[in-house]
Specification:
Blueprint lengths: L10 H12 L3 H12 L5 H8 L3 H14 L2 E6 L2 E6 L1 H17 L2
Helix pairs in contact: 2-4, 3-4
Length: 103
Amino acid sequence: MGTTKLFAHSLRQNRIAKLYKALGHPARIAILEYISKNPHTTCTNIVADIELAQATISQHLSELKRAGFIAGVSKGKKIYYSINVDNWYESYQLSNNFFINTP
């Protein structure tokens, strides 16, 4: 019997796949661009600028947060999103090392 797909790959391969999956939707790229230009912003602000449904934006924010690209800080009933700079740098290094060390 074979192993599950998750365990058939290295931790590094799974991490890279998770990162690129999170970046694999144009709406998420638009959200990241917005947050990078407007740090500590709310979902309401993003919806007003990107013009997607609030539920759609929330879903994409959750995926970006799960991948570690953004962080959310709760203040009252609102969550303020910003770029997680440390994880961006780690993702950059992981991707860069992958492509440099791949024959």
